[in-house]
Amino acid sequence: MQIGLDFNLVEDLVAGVDEVGRGPLCGAVVTAAVILDPARPIIGLNDSKKLTEAKREALFDEICEKALSFCIARAEVEEIDRLNILQATMLAMQRAVEGLHVTPKLALIDGNRCPKLAVPSAPVVKGDSQVPAIAAASILAKVIRDREMSAFELIYPGYGIGGHKGYPTPVHLEALARLGPTPIHRRSFAPVRAAWEAREGVTDSLI
Fold it and tell me: What digits encode the pLDDT tens for the residues 104-125?
């Protein structure tokens, strides 16, 4: 159930929800839901993109320690290709909220739309810069996804995944054209599909 947002109504047991990884050409989209504990404030929460890697890592540990509840969820590459990235992101957000061991009274979703949830929800545009719980969720999701991308750098060398985290940088696009897609690349994304077709001669619709 989506509701109109009035910050005067925001109270305890509010879950902040955010995602990381809608734009990259490879890897899962990772989401997180966080219910902060008002009795254990966390200083320095902000949009994860505005924080240094070291600061995100430090806040990651503090959020996990102090939050009343948190859940990190995901939608895999296969789901992204089957559903499309928007619907896969909504599914991952739904999984994150449903995975909380404390039921929130309200879920605030970063962005302009909400997934289907069993609890009241409201979208907050640029919420990761306005709502501490959403900022905390963005930090958890980004740290987890960045760690995964660093691990994939070792499994799939030559693509620079550890540096660009899967985003379509010139380095990534050049490697994709030269080496072809890996199993973690999203074939429903145009640059990946083009590289796949060029390398394998695939012209039919997606599997």
Answer: 999 999 999 999 999 999 999 9
Amino acid at 30: V
**Distance (Å, whole) CA 142 – CA 125:** 18
Query: Across-strand partners of 69?
Result: 35
Q: What percent of the chain has pLDDT over 70?
A: 91
What is this structure's pTM?
A: 0.90
Q: Mapped to the 3 state alphabet, what secondary structure does the chain carry?
A: CECCCCHHHCCCCEEEEEEECCCCCECCEEEEEEECCCCCCCCCCCCHHHCCHHHHHHHHHHHHHHCCEEEEEEECHHHHHHHCHHHHHHHHHHHHHHCCCCCCCEEEEECCCCCCCCCCEEEECCHHHCCHHHHHHHHHHHHHHHHHHHHHHHHCCCCCHHHHCCCCCHHHHHHHHHHCCCCCECCCCHHHHHHHHHHHCCCCCCC
Sign of CA dihedral 130, 133, 136, 138: negative
Q: Which CATH architecture has domain 7-154?
A: 2-Layer Sandwich (3.30)
pLDDT tens per residue across span 87-108: 999 999 999 999 999 999 999 9
Pairwise CA distance, residues 42 & 104, whole Å: 19
Domain segments of the chain as ranges: 7-154, 155-200
Q: How far apart are CA 36 and CA 166, in angstroms?
A: 30
